[in-house]
Amino acid sequence: MRSRKTLPVAALRAFEAAARHGQISRAADELGVTHGAVSRHVSHLEDFVGVPLFEGARNRPQLTAEGRVFGAALTGAFDQIEDALRVIGRGDSDILDVACLSTFAMRWLIPRLHDFTARHPRYDVRLATDDRQAQVQVDVRILVLPPQAHLPATCTRLFTEKLALVVAPSLASVRKEDVLALPRLETRTRPDVWREWVSLTGRGIGDATTTRIFDHYHMTIEAALNSLGIAIAPWHLVAGDVASGRLVAPFGLVDSNYVYVVEVARPGRTKAGHFVKWLEECVRDLETQRTGA
């Protein structure tokens, strides 16, 4: 195998352009060199590989079979290099890719994003919402860690999740004990939340007479808002609705011990630092809203 130190990079680049365009003159225009310079690079590369890459008349050369295979391979290789450069260079761009759970995005992050964009108008925030947390390439990822989980060095702690039983005011006019007999709203993405709440509060709720199950938390919360029953919801998702009187939390709050953190893919990037600092300010506002509720 030849050493990479001996690879004729300029000749490879010239031949790739000529093979892709099918014309040496167009390759010369793209590279900003003369027709003769591209021809010399191609001839040098043919000597290097030991096979002809072009054939036919000098003014209308055609790729050989080997030239077509080699040209396609070089185009793919250069495309991969360009993709890699885009990935590692995105940290200094104005695009800020953020990933989080869909309900967190809909009910907590998106309603606040106008404040971030007002402070930092240069950034174009793009959200990736995937409840399976697929490993897409992003700048910032908001994660939920289970109780007692180790906090990775790349993560900054935001807050500990609190749970609340919430109900629409129209259903909350009955006694507290009777509220627990109302239809129970559940979420497929967190099927054990009612058991969590019972364990954390020590309250007995018995068997639900009616249970309505929804695919995502934002649907469950919407059902509670529309008087379809009672739900156990993370406080940060419903705090605004409780503050406005659209929901009531008759049994208060309890720590679930799940921890929300923000992970930065490439620490030290200015745009990620701005976003993390802004998230921390939003969390302080959430804490103020909780203690004042």
TrEMBL record:
HTH lysR-type domain location: 7-64
Family: Belongs to the LysR transcriptional regulatory family.
Organism: Paenirhodobacter populi
Top-level taxonomic group: Bacteria
Name listed for the protein in its UniProt record: LysR family transcriptional regulator
Keyword annotations of the record: DNA-binding, Transcription, Transcription regulation
One Pfam family linked to the record: LysR_substrate
Gene3D superfamilies: Periplasmic binding protein-like II (3.40.190.10), Winged helix-like DNA-binding domain superfamily/Winged helix DNA-binding domain (1.10.10.10)
Single GO molecular function: DNA-binding transcription factor activity
Keyword Ligase among record annotations: no
Biological processes, Gene Ontology terms: DNA-templated transcription
Transcription regulation recorded as keyword: yes
